[in-house]
Amino acid sequence: RKEVEQDPGPFNVPEGATVAFNCTYSNSASQSFFWYRQDCRKEPKLLMSVYSSGNEDGRFTAQLNRASQYISLLIRDSKLSDSATYLCVDYGGGATNKLIFGTGTLLAVQP
Amino acid sequence: NAGVMQNPRHLVRRRGQEARLRCSPMKGHSHVYWYRQLPEEGLKFMVYLQKENIIDESGMPKERFSAEFPKEGPSILRIQQVVRGDSAAYFCASSPPGRLSYNEQFFGPGTRLTVL
Fold first, then answer.
1. Which residues of chain A neighbour B33 with C-beta distances below 8 Å?
2. How far is CA B31 from CA A21, A38, B76, in A?
3. Residues of A with CB below 8 A from B35's CB?
4. Which strand (E) or helix (H) includes residue A4?
5. Hey, CA dihedral for A13, A91, A23, A48, is it positive or negative?
6. Which of A21, A26, A69, B29 is the most buried (most CB within 10 A)?
7. Which of B45, B91, B99 comes nearest A43 by C-beta?
8. Taking the CA atoms of chain B, what radius of gyration do you get in angstroms?
9. If you ran DSSP here, which 8-state letter would residue B58 be given?
């Protein structure tokens, strides 16, 4: 089983749509999670952190369900500029400090 | 404040040659990480370094790959005797010192290695 699993997509949605991405993780001891965004042939950039209480930043909402080991990202009112690959990330923490990435979900927002 | 810098941005090598990838962290950052992204795959952690120390190299292939972060100068990822399977994008990230909580890792633009 992969450490972080995501639906690869692609998700093709019209502008203005609401889209949700899901992610599961295997390490029940993991403490911190993030969503990164990666544009085609670019470096990943931090989009937002994920907390059990939920985290909202403008049109973006992230949620963590520890019991189900499940993470979600909701994007409301999609814009063309939201087209990218969204990476679910488990922060290994501890002595290693490494990030464990899912393979990403590709979003294509259509005009 | 310049971001994480990597060079070269593109590198072409023939099988059996050596590849040297360089990474200069953001100013004030003393932690460097290398990740590899194979075509159609996610980023995979390779190694975590601090100045003159390898902290975690659990993601490094056992042979042909090495990394260093000297007291002066950039971090270097070295791949000896490259093979076609080494073709990938190699991303470097850096973070500031401090271990009390997660310190955001800022990524460089990557080096795209192509092995012919």
1. 97-99
2. 31, 22, 13
3. 99, 101
4. strand A4-6
5. negative
6. A21
7. B91
8. 14
9. T
Query: Could you tell me if A48 lies within 8 Å of chain B, comparing CB atoms?
Result: no
Residue type, A45: K
Token readout for B73 is 């100068």
Q: What 3-state DSSP class applies to A98? A: coil
| DSSP strand pairing (A105-110 vs A11-14) | parallel
Measure CB to CB from residue B108 to each of A43, A46, A91 and give the nearest one. A43
In angstroms, the Cα distances linking B78 to A26, A55, B70 are 32, 40, 13
The minimum CA-CA distance between B14 and chain A, rounded to whole Å, is: 22
> Which tokens belong to B40?
């159609």
A15's CB contacts (< 8 A; 6+ apart) are A78, A79, A80, A109, A110, A111
B43·A101 Cβ contact <8 A? yes
Distance from C-alpha of B4 to C-alpha of A43, rounded to nearest angstrom: 11
pLDDT tens digit at each of 111 positions of chain A: 778 999 888 999 999 999 999 999 998 888 889 999 999 989 999 999 887 788 999 999 999 999 999 999 999 999 999 999 999 999 876 667 889 999 999 999 999
Side chain identity at residue B77, one-letter code: L
Residue labelled with tokens 């953001």 = B26
Residue B84 backbone phi and psi in degrees, to 5: -60, -35
Cα distances from A110 to residues A15, A30, A83, B20, in angstroms, run: 6, 36, 9, 40
Pick from A4, A46, A98: which is nearest to B33 by CB?
A98
DSSP state of B105: P
